[in-house]
Amino acid sequence: MVSSLDGMIAKKDNSVSWFETSDYFGKGASVSEKEQEEFLKTIDCYVMGARTYEHALELSKSYGWAYGDVPTIVVTHRNLPLERKNIEFYSGNLDKLVNERLKPKYKNVWLVGGAMLAKDFIRLKLADEIRLSVLPIILGDGTLFFDHIGHEQVLHLKDVTAYKTGMVELWYEIKND
User: Are strands 109-113 and 45-49 parallel, antiparallel or unpaired?
Assistant: First the structure.
């Protein structure tokens, strides 16, 4: 997930133009396109909520479909347009989705959003890690990522990386003991 320093993942109008940062942190790491491509190759399947899917469809008109041909499951109760052959819709129990459909078939599933679906996965103990990229901006208002999860969640910091753009990536293991 990408968030502002104050924990927002989107402005009230759902825009993410603030993702583009002009900040510069000299001691930060650089990310090459090759490194990004190598990382993306490790993802076997994407899971997203309906609003994230709709937003991705809108962005794809300008930038192309960000998830390539990787299988993508959209969790929704609504009737949405099926735009690509590698997309399927799922409506039902998330525990069944993870344990009966995802675990037997995929090794590295990436939950790309949105906030409500991510909170459900955390609450139901269906997520293993959280990777949060914090951008150098305070939005002051918008959609919060971690509001009202409903219980305390212990995490273990696996890694942290500061980038030249001023973004900081926090990588946590979720302790589900």
Answer: parallel
Rg (CA), the chain: 16
Instruction: Retrieve residue 13's tokens.
Output: 């109008």
Domains of the chain, earliest start first:
2-174 (3.40.430.10)
* CA of residue 91 relative to chain centroid, distance: 19
Helix residue ranges per DSSP H, the chain: 33-41, 50-63, 94-96, 115-123
Q: How confident is the model at residue 47 (pLDDT cuts 50, 70, 90)?
A: very high
The model's pTM is 0.90
The CA distance from 151 to 160, in Å, is 24
Residue 173 host element (H or E): strand 168-174
Q: Are 72 and 46 in contact (CB under 8 A)?
A: yes
